[in-house]
């Protein structure tokens, strides 16, 4: 019998193992979202430079680009739950180090750059693991629902955590928020510990890391759809997502709304993203995923252009709702299409390449921030939205197989 209504939307959460994973994800991404806002505020406070925001962001992205493929190979070799526990514990310790430096008045920009590099290295293993673990937790027919609910957890934190982080900076100081972030990572690891042990993937014991890596790349190259889906991941992330890291520029220089206003800007995009996640989750095993992917990607570009050209704070919040919703639908749909078109034994390596495209996001902030430094934030974000829109229209015309997925 078909499950209906809200129960369809949240059907994966009826699975206890997935539910524990989902709560862990909620805690981890709450930490990441607060960290993004508070770190950006701290960098801008220390340097008064949009370019410095880009440097710190790029420092996190380079390790993801360099090591995600190797991270995917490791994910395909080990028990994924244990891997995620280790990544959360290491991240908590690195964040605690920064909190202590802030508390003692010793923090400098180079500390934040080193911490960002370490965080990117950890994410090279954490992000592919989080994606590849999902099919081990739910049935195949529930993968789209589980991916969308995972995206929903991420976007729920984008609604609450940025605003909370912005408010708490004024209440407990930047160092106090950093200690709260450490507690969130510890909670994430604790929930993973309560999950049952998962199966460790079987593999050829004679295979080397290099041979596994080459096998994964050949598998992707031979696929009729995976290269196009990965291309659809690269451009929206490289040219669309940098808007998030440039929000301090809009909060301070464009709208003059301070730290709390920065939280509201981030939360507006998060509310839209949360709505988009729940919309995708409610669709179930939706048949026209390719069409949805194209429409969402194009809408992402359009709303970025509208936001960049808005002159009033509350109108900008409205357009950010659209930005968040379109981005969330696009990412959940693209992720699902990659998952269901990949064999189990290759999922870690395929998803690691997908995570490499996400690693472009902080690196793409560097040229975007340089443009913002010289021409202004609206020009940087508007140009990215225009490139994304043109690319999506080109892919719609040149790769009709995507529309039929």
Could you characterize what this model shows?
With 405 residues, the protein is mainly α. The chain has helices spanning 6-9, 16-47, 50-75, 80-103, 109-132, 134-137, 143-193, 209-222, 226-240, 247-254, 258-282, 289-308, 313-340, 347-375, 377-398, 400-403. It has one domain: Up-down Bundle (Growth Hormone, Chain: A), CATH 1.20.1250. The protein contains 16 helices and no strands.
Q: How does the major sheet shape up? A: none
Unreliable spans: none
User: Under the CATH scheme, which architecture would be assigned?
Assistant: Up-down Bundle
Termini separation comes to 26 Å
* Total beta strands: 0
Mean pLDDT: 81
Remind me, CATH topology? Answer: Growth Hormone, Chain: A
Number of individual domains: 1
What is the 3D form?
globular
Supply the number of helical segments: 16
H and E order? HHHHHHHHHHHHHHHH
Radius of gyration in whole Å, from Cα? Answer: 20 Å
State which percent range the strand residues make up.
under 5%
Helical residue percent band: over 70%
Fourth-tier CATH superfamily name: MFS general substrate transporter like domains
What structural class should be given to the helix and strand makeup?
mainly alpha
What's the CATH class, please?
Answer: Mainly Alpha
